Predict the 3D structure of the following.
Amino acid sequence: MIELGRSAAWLPEVCVVTDVCRENKSTVTLELENSSSEPHSQPLAGQFHMLYAFGVGEIPVSFSRIESDKVAHTVREVGAVSKAIAALKPGASLGVRGPFGNSWSVSAKEHKHIVLIAGGLGLAPLRPLIERLWQESRKYEQILLLIGSRDPQSMLFTDDVTRWRTRIEVRRSVDSCQFRNRGDDWNESVGFVHTLLDRESELSKDTAAFICGPEIMMRHCAERLVELGVNSRQISLSLERNMKCGIGLCGHCQFGPDFLCKQGPIGNYHNLRPRLRIREF
């Protein structure tokens, strides 16, 4: 976890929106360039920023792309703050605190087989890790990426998926076949994303898995991975809670003994499993 100075932790710095990409009807990706004289610490894949829409409010948003001088955040319009952020245009200003939280951890020395599972917007926090694995794909024996979405039109980063498929095995699925009544062209799987694992009869003991998406989807996927032979300690989940401060003071993100803005958002399934079995915990 990156230790933050007082200004990065408490006070938002002003960043400039340099580009905006509409991913689908309810989701946009904003590219940010730091305009502060004191640049943020370099973020890691899996961490998040607290983004502040001036005069509206603040929300946590994971990094969907990380470069040396720019980062990107992918935002779905679901509330007043996310709608205000998604409505920003290039040249607009946005308040930023962070980066906060821990990161995805993978080692080519320990893991020869990698499984990544994304449900809906969960592909965004995994995207920086996927990019790293794509660039370093020769270090691994197998990299399998499973992507689930509500329907074909909700799929994110379709151009990236085409590129990733040049080095990584990618399987995609949509939740139901109702979209076919609208004439969508879809020739891949239909069903919840965890059913894509049904093609696997067994996975190597040196497999590392990374999962991000709705909590019930992550639980089903993790349970299936354990059945296939993956060590529960090698299954990483990114949990989402209503984070307000990002520094472990407000308590909104408490999950059992952990504050997810500090001890999370990423944890291993072995430790999280008992809590995930408790309904509405």
In short: Residues 1-6 have pLDDT under 50 and may be disordered. The CA atoms of residues 175 and 191 lie 5 Å apart. The helical segments are 6-10, 80-86, 123-135, 158-164, 215-227, 269-276.
